[in-house]
């Protein structure tokens, strides 16, 4: 970890000491989320080794013909990427969100904000709202996605959610599901019973903008997606178990030896790896728009997830780390490299655009095939029909 990043994190830690509980937690989360100990490791790497795009020695096109543009929420993006939400909720985060939004605007990619619960808890304090609104004020020509937890949704009415969308001028609202994080979090809210579905249904019907269902890092299963698809949700962010493990983030906030600490350590590989979550989501929601996030930290992993059934990808931690470490220029270089890798994978697979990539041949390893069969998914039918649908 660089000296610059350590200094910035020390500053964040000092700020933590003088805030209320929700804002305190947000800054603490940022500090811990950048710790490599909270990343998924072995299981996910194994899954990616099980998915192979077929190399084409004669791609049938020139590299310059590869087009990675994607349309999302009515915006034409230069690349199928969303900078997913991690920050917001305190005035000290305005500069970070401004840099993230500047990057999104310059590269013409989508951007999400962190949980807006802090806005609700502050009774829409202007200072708190401003730390989120800076995203839209900076990124005016790309999609901006709001964010609220399922459990926060339980405690507020639909009009309040609509107001959350309006105060930051968002194009959609993501409802995040995070049971693994909440059960380990010292202040966790573990109310995840199905009675909340009626409130989501009401929101889908009332909000004039799309509702997105997302996990935070343990993946969406077909059972979960089916529930929300049945009430009209059409956009999903898988946030699979390949990137930041928020259960481990919360583990580090607990006292060593406590029940939550010991349990959290055992959740180090818990969840559905991102490519498998994409498969399960596409299988039960064929007409949906799928964002593959959760450790999709390079362009080759992006290509794999799009080929397996996603429409675009989401990335957060490496961009935030680059900004905190070396500033906007380094984060921009990271994103340039990411897009070049995606284009290279598409070129070598013979895919001219994102749609074509979803129809190119893929070889699946036996472990993934067995998992699909046990989950009731016919691998041949999925590869040749389902993954191509939308």
Structure description:
It is an enzyme of class 5 (isomerase). This is Isopentenyl-diphosphate delta-isomerase. Homooctamer. Dimer of tetramers. It catalyses: isopentenyl diphosphate = dimethylallyl diphosphate. It comes from Desulfurococcus amylolyticus (strain DSM 18924 / JCM 16383 / VKM B-2413 / 1221n). The chain is an alpha/beta fold and about 400 residues long. It has one domain (about 40-390): Aldolase class I (TIM Barrel). About 50% of the residues lie in helices and about 10% in strands. It has 20 helices and twelve strands. It has helices at about 5-15, 20-35, 40-50, 95-105, 115-120, 125-140, 150-155, 160-165, 180-185, 195-205, 220-230, 245-250, 260-265, 275-285, 300-310, 315-325, 330-350, 355, 365-375, 380-385; strands spanning about 50-55, 70, 75, 80-85, 110, 145-150, 170-175, 210-215, 235, 290, 310-315, 360-365. An eight-stranded parallel beta barrel has the order 4-5-6-7-8-9-10-11, surrounded by five helices. The protein has a two-stranded antiparallel ribbon with strand order 1-12. Strands 2-3 form a two-stranded antiparallel ribbon. β2 (about 70) and β3 (about 75) form a beta hairpin. α1 (about 5-15) crosses α16 and α15 crosses α17 (about 330-350). The longest helix has 22 residues, at about 330-350. The protein is globular and about 60 Å long. The chain starts with a helix and ends in a 6-residue tail after the last helix.
């Amino acid at each position: 970890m660089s000296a610059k990043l350590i200094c910035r994190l020390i500053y964040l830690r000092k700020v933590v000491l003088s805030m209320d509980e929700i804002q305190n937690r947000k800054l603490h989360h940022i500090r811990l989320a950048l710790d490599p100990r909270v990343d998924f490791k072995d299981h996910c790497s194994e899954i990616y080794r099980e998915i192979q795009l077929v190399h084409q020695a004669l791609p049938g096109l020139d590299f310059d013909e590869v087009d990675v543009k994607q349309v999302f929420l009515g915006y034409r993006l230069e690349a199928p990427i969303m900078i997913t939400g991690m920050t917001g909720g305190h005035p000290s985060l305005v500069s970070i969100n401004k840099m993230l939004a500047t990057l999104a605007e310059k590269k013409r990619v989508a951007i999400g904000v962190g949980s807006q619960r802090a806005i609700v808890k502050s009774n829409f304090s202007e200072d708190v709202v401003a730390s989120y609104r800076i995203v839209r004020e900076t990124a005016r020509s790309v999609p901006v996605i709001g964010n609220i937890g399922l459990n926060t949704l339980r405690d507020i009415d639909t009009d309040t959610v609509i107001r959350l969308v309006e105060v930051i001028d968002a194009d959609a609202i993501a409802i995040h599901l995070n049971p693994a994080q909440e059960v380990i979090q010292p202040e966790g809210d573990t109310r995840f019973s199905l009675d909340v579905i009626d409130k989501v249904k009401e929101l889908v019907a009332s909000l004039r903008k799309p509702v997105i269902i997302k996990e935070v890092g343990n993946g969406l299963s077909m059972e979960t997606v089916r529930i929300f698809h049945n009430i009209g949700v059409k956009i999903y962010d898988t946030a699979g178990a390949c990137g930041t493990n928020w259960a481990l983030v919360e583990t580090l906030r607990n006292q060593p030896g406590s029940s939550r600490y010991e349990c959290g350590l055992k959740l180090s590989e818990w969840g559905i790896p991102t490519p498998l979550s994409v498969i399960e989501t596409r299988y039960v929601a064929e007409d949906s728009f799928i964002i593959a996030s959760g450790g999709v930290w390079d362009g080759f992993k992006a290509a794999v997830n799009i080929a397996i059934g996603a429409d675009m990808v989401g990335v957060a931690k490496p961009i935030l780390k680059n900004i905190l470490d070396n500033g906007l220029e380094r984060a921009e270089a990271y994103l340039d490299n990411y897009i070049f890798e995606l284009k290279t994978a598409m070129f070598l697979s013979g895919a001219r655009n994102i749609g074509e990539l979803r129809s190119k041949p893929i070889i699946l390893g036996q472990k993934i095939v067995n998992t699909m069969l046990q989950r009731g998914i016919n691998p041949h039918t999925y590869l040749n029909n389902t993954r191509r649908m939308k």
